[in-house]
Amino acid sequence: LERPSLEFNLPDTHEEGKLYVVDSLNNLNKLNVCPDESQRSLDEEENTGGTGERMAGSNARNQCLFFVIFILTLIISLALVSFVIFLILQTRSEVDQISSRLLSEKKNIEELKKINNIILKHLNQSGIKE
Question: What sections of the protein cross the membrane (predicted)?
Fold first, then answer.
């Protein structure tokens, strides 16, 4: 269909005929422009007497939904951040324990090297060789 034109040469009829023709043209224009689902919503808006109340209710519902989703997102983010901080602290504690064990083992190894050197010196001095 071609783009509907709103300018028509209407024959001179009585007032009710003009209103009927204009209403028919509006319905035809709605069918050409709007899909079926939006046409139903347009018809419902006409039956309810306007869009002001419906738009205000829908807008308030959208804002409420947005704030609920926003608050849930913040709570989930806070929980995830708390969990990450807990993991960091736990890992830090484990690393501290491992590093202290490594230091003590290093000291033990150094002591064993000293003892080994003392034993080798004693063996060399006593004349027992392999």
Answer: 64-89
